[in-house]
Fold this protein.
Amino acid sequence: MNKNDKVNLTINNYGCNAEGVALFDGQIVFVPYSLVDENIDATIIKQTSKTNLAKIDNINNPSELRIKAPCPYFEKCGGCQLQHTTYQNTIKIKTEIVQNAITNIGKINYKISSAIPSENMYHYRNKIAMPINPKTRLLGMYRPSSHKIVDIEDCLLQKNMISSLIKVFNGYLSQTKNTIYNDETKTGLLKSLVARETDNKLLVTVVINGNDLNDKNLLVDLLKQNFENFGLNLNINKLKNNVILTENFVDVFGDNKAEICENGIKYFISNQSFMQVNDEVKLEMYNAIFNEIENCYVVDAYSGAGLLSAMMAKHAKYVYGIEIVKPATELANELAKTNNIKNLKNINGDCAIELPKLMDSLNAEEKNNLTVVLDPPRKGCDKKVLDAIAKVAPQKIVYMSCDPSTLARDLKILQEQLHYNIKYIQPYDMFPQTKHVETLAVLEK
């Protein structure tokens, strides 16, 4: 096959990005927005040494599970990959994505549970980050695998206040004289809009390539006309890269933090904070974790700002949070102090170093009833952390993952080299309509 070749394909599986997979003359072809059992005419648009990427020209026998996408931007905007099929089928697809990773990458013979669906298929996201199109002066989303912006008037994934904010901010952009940042020339003031909706409050951040916004009052007035409870601030970002937010915030109006009480813990959140985007699924997943650590001694190995550590302290005998970023550890200590948590100690340092040191200080009861909780970044666990876990040999490991491929790689090491048995692997649909899936795996010695 060569680029621009016309091919006829029958889709027989799904890839890790929820695209259809077909074989043509023994070669693998990935076809976005196709479904299993569909026969399609397609054009090869990209090639590597091992795979080919194709786009659909015609679907000769559409799947019975194919539906019309409700969003007018679907396939144009890169935000969603699965609006073209029933929600029940997206759950099946995501289950297969995780299963394929466990089987093919992890080489693990284990049948996983079906993905737990989200309560809301749409309007579930509590946060948005949208660039501004310098040509049209409208908010947008990037095209798939591109830095080109598709203008957006609404996003069906967002919670209702954020959906309204998109329209309000587009109205502001039509009135303001401020220039729009151009990524090609690296000039212009207004870069992007970041917003979070939580507890009936809207936190709004305008990212600017400068020191101030000339017509802040205009934006404040428009927000007042549409929202009862909001905070507005600016983020000064003069960087010429893809980083959205810097540490430099300037308050403009209202309170730019929201106080939340969740699982018995009071905490503050801002647009700078990390929080799962789907509140309902997050709580369901956290409850499963709490069941696993009841009356245990727990090490939270990627503890960040300490929110999960604090919540687990309500269920565990004692929790040790280990985090390498010092400001995050300081926030974790503040959180524990605010909530008067006595059975929690936050440790600043590299988990690969601090975990074995911690084990040397534990007594026999703690060592014999120890659970390690892992919530690593997308790239998975550092090999040094897995080696440290091998030396520690906890009774149980609870692993949260946002990437099935790295999860499967790490589970293979934990199972084969460290001799842990899989208790269960449970995917959660944290991100409906997209290719992404969150997974909770529990292993026992």
